[in-house]
Amino acid sequence: MLQASVASPVRSSSLSVAKPYVRATRKLHTVVAFDLILPGLDSSGPRRVLQKALGDEARMQVVATDRRHECVTLHVEVPSRSLSDVIGVVTSRFEQATLGHATTFTLRR
């Protein structure tokens, strides 16, 4: 015995229709990253100076503390600035600091 069923042409409101995936355009952001070796073992003062000079988006973290030579190394990442601008700010604020390898990279967000 054969059975036939007829589907209703009316759509149920509970079924969702799949929409095609549209890739959102993301902006490119340039980030300057560098290491900064500072005299002394307390990084709180230099971090405040860097935060004020480079802006609230700058991120800093202590990556090394050298008690023998009494210095601290900070890794700093600054978005939306040029490399020469960041180096100018750092060298004007810290006379006895040593600027390590500095690089720029681009993030898509």
Task: Give an overview of the whole structure.
A 4-stranded antiparallel sheet has the order 2-3-1-4, with helices on one face. The chain is about 20% helix and about 35% strand. The model has no long low-confidence stretch (mean pLDDT about 85). The longest helix is centred in the middle third of the chain and has 11 residues, at about 45-55. It is built from 2 helices and 4 strands, in the order βαββαβ. It has a domain at about 35-109: Alpha-Beta Plaits (2-Layer Sandwich), CATH 3.30.70. The termini are far apart.
List the keywords.
109 residues, alpha+beta, Alpha-Beta Plaits, four-stranded antiparallel β-sheet, 2 helices, elongated
Summarize the structure.
With 109 residues, the protein is of the alpha+beta class. The protein contains two helices and four strands; from the N terminus they run E-H-E-E-H-E.
Distance between the termini: 61 Å
Q: What is the beta-strand fraction?
A: 35-45%
The radius of gyration computed from the alpha-carbon positions, rounded to a whole number of angstroms, is 27 Å
**Which CATH class of the domain at 36-108?**
Alpha Beta
State the major sheet: 4 strands, antiparallel
Order of helices and strands: EHEEHE
The tally of helices reads 2
Helix/strand structural class: alpha+beta
